[in-house]
Design brief:
It is built from three helices and 31 strands. The chain is mainly beta and 486 residues long. Strand 21 and strand 22 form a beta hairpin. Bound molecules: CU-O-CU linkage and copper (II) ion. The site of CU-O-CU linkage has 10 residues, from strand 5 and strand 30.
Length: 486
Amino acid sequence: MKVTRRQFLKTAVGAAVAAGMPAFPLRSALAQPKTAVREFRFSASPARVNLGAGPDFIAWTYNGQVPGPEIRAREGEIIRVVLKNFLPEGTTIHWHGVPVPNAMDGVPNVTQKPVMPGETFVYEFEARPAGSYMYHSHVHYQLDQGLYGPLIIEPSSPKGAYDREYTLVLEDWVMRDGGGVADTQRRPAMGMGMGGGMGGRGMMRGRGRGGLESGNGPLLEPVYDGYAVNGRVGPAIQPLEVSKGERVKLRLLNPSSATIYDLRLAGHTLIITHADGRPIKPLKTDILRIGMGERYDVEFLADNPGTWILGAADQGFGEGQLRIPVHYKGIREKEAEAPTFHRGLRFASYWDFQSLRSSEAWASKAANRSYSQTLSGGMHSPYWTINGYVYPDAERLGVRTGERVRIGYWNQSMMPHPMHLHGHFFKVVNPSVPQERWILKDTVIVDPMQRIDIEFLADNPGNWFHHCHNLYHMEAGMANVVMYES
Ligand code: C2O
Ligand code: CU
């Protein structure tokens, strides 16, 4: 999944020529340039996979591979994905982070009926805005079974002064079925029943239809035994090759179902340039935390020849196995140097980020409407709730086009919840930064007992899913729908 800028430009021109268009369309009143369409054919099917180490097992895949094929387009092009379902159950694809038209959003029973076995569905949307995204199934535990992949939108005119770029997809695996459904070891129900407070009080409203349709109740998080990068685990993880003096860009994507990574590159400082695809004021850090559903673009200057590891801190679940070697060309050292995680390191947080561009319009207005959302784990219950509700028996958050909407999260559980809103970017409210510099994101980790507010502009009509991106929390009820009232 390495692509140099030159290679991509070549491919883009090649595709335009193949489509019978001039590579640089002439603008005239008579001949309007046609928009290039990038078409991909995805077969969703079970397939035998191997992550380069460990056993063969059956995962659910797009085109037989994990992760799925990289979708890469230029801003303004049309992305068309023809999905054919060879799975034994219905499926959908969600374009995580891209503000697509509602009908293309891929949420079963909210924006479309699941695509049933043998059926075909065509997704089509404009590649906009430029940034790092991902796509994944939005049905049950299919994400954890392997149905996800990277989606990269290049700026229409090349920006950025980097020499080399890598896309790194971070994945948590049970090397048996992915993690979704097998009768496998599950993590103890940590943090459950500790919610209690305001919304929870051990009483759940609307309980009964949440979780699995089978009536077995939702699954607990599995114990993962493989932490993969681009579908490879452990010693099979593909090293990053760099040359001295280069500026290297990494697109870090986390479609993991239940793993937050704290990453550090030994011997180098990371410079964060984009959060969830949106440009921020470049910020140096030693440790980068990336939650489920989040994406970060970082850069580093290859100014320290040697052999290094970009690795994750171990939180007690084996995440420390995630180790990506960084090799300087022409240098081979036997031992790669791994990062250490100790006190005193820079640890960038949302509160340190400022958006690169200031949005003046944002400074002048105040929210028209606000909702508070208490995140909680049910007492003595496998369900996870928002304001005490278990999806689908959940609240509907009404909004009107043009409104500025505030959502105030209050996490009353002992687990972090990466909250994700479909169809929109939102501002993360940060009192220590001028409003016009609040960052845009689409997924925000709300830590245990923390309060975080977000605000979004209601500019994309439809019914939009809003949920925790821990797949096991989402399936256990921690979801609702933002609905445009006409
Ligand atoms: Cu990746 Cu509903 O989201
Ligand atoms: Cu959660």
